[in-house]
Amino acid sequence: MHFLRLGPVGDERPAVRADDGITYDLLPITPDIDGAFLANDGVNRVRAALEANELEVLDHEDLRVGPPLAHPGKVICIGLNYRDHAEETGADIPGEPVVFLKTPDTIVGPYDQVLVPRRSVKTDWEVELGVVIGSTARYLESEEEALACVGAYVLSHDVSEREFQIERGGTWDKGKNCETFNPLGPFLVPADEIADPQSLEMRLWVNGEIKQNSSTKNMIFSVAEVVRYLSQFLVLRPGDVINTGTPAGVALGQPEPKPYLRAGDVVELEIEGLGKQRQTLGQA
Fold it and tell me: Quick one: 111 and 166 in the same domain?
């Protein structure tokens, strides 16, 4: 199953694309796809409704595809989680996960416009596996417990402005929280339908040229370890999103002159089983 939110910005409606490819309206079951839906056995309630033929087909041909998760609580990001990405940026291989935060209002739909910030000269791309928490996690002791707290997986684009992030002092947050800097989707896939989150192919193209081509098997810290680790420092709640890091191939790691994004560029990205995104860059 694929869980989607369809409609104009701020007025998306919940939907599910069943295994037969037909999209059904979820409003009779839930007002939205959010942490409460995941925490209250929403996935299995939808499965039961599909099996009982209780849902109506949704005509969605002309509807925008919004971010598939409403009202995320936190967006927690892991930096330098692929050895080749750390090496291309000249950073040391981390001994523990590098953690930073993005604000939830950076999240936009998978085909929405991404804005190059004003005075930006180093806007960059990053394809990432997103993890959506489905049940509360605190002080987890094992990776098995950690995976049990994952509600869904999603394709995430962690857009970054490298000058703001690295050269302007302070933490990374200035370069990570610009408007539209986290396209998400197009859909959520329930965690139990992803057999192994550590074996997903991932790719990203800019203007038709492939830039990133890797697999989640190359993570330094696995999904399970990231969730377990984070639970030692903060409470993970249903609807929180974790961006698990990006592989090599970002603009920052390219030879000079580095091909940072400009208005008019087109970025496309995909992760196996989690769909594709496409964004045209605009100017803030």
Answer: yes
Tokens 């701020």 belong to 10
51-94 pLDDT tens trace: 999 999 999 889 999 999 999 999 999 999 998 898 998 889 99
Domain annotation covers residue 58: no
Domain of residue 255: give its range.
Answer: 75-283
Asked whether 222 and 256 are in contact (CB, 8 A), the reply is no
Could you tell me if 108 and 175 lie in one domain?
A: yes
Q: What digits encode the pLDDT tens for the residues 197-216?
A: 999 999 999 999 999 999 99
State how far the Cα of 195 lies from the Cα of 248, in Å rounded to an integer: 25
Does residue 56 fall inside a structural domain? Answer: no
DSSP the chain: -EEEEESSTT--EEEEE-TTS-EEE-TTT-S-SSHHHHHTTHHHHHHHHHHTT-SPB---TT--B--SSSS-S-EEEEES-BHHHHHHTTPPPPSS-EEEEE-GGGEE-TTSPEEEPTT-S-EE--EEEEEEE-S-B-S--SHHHHHHTEEEEEEEE--EEHIIIIISSS-GGGGT-STT-EEB-S-BEEGGG-S-TTS-EEEEEETTEEEEEEEGGGBSS-HHHHHHHHTTTS-B-TT-EEE----S--GGGSPSSP----TT-EEEEEETTS-EEEEEEEE-
Q: Which amino acid is at 237?
A: R
Query: Are 41 and 176 found together in one domain?
Result: no
The reported pTM is 0.97
Task: Enumerate the β-bridge partners of residue 24.
Answer: 16, 57
95 within a domain of the structure (yes/no) = yes
Q: Are residues 80 and 205 in the same domain?
A: yes
In this structure, is residue 65 part of a structural domain?
Answer: no
Asked if residue 240 and residue 171 are part of one domain, the reply reads yes
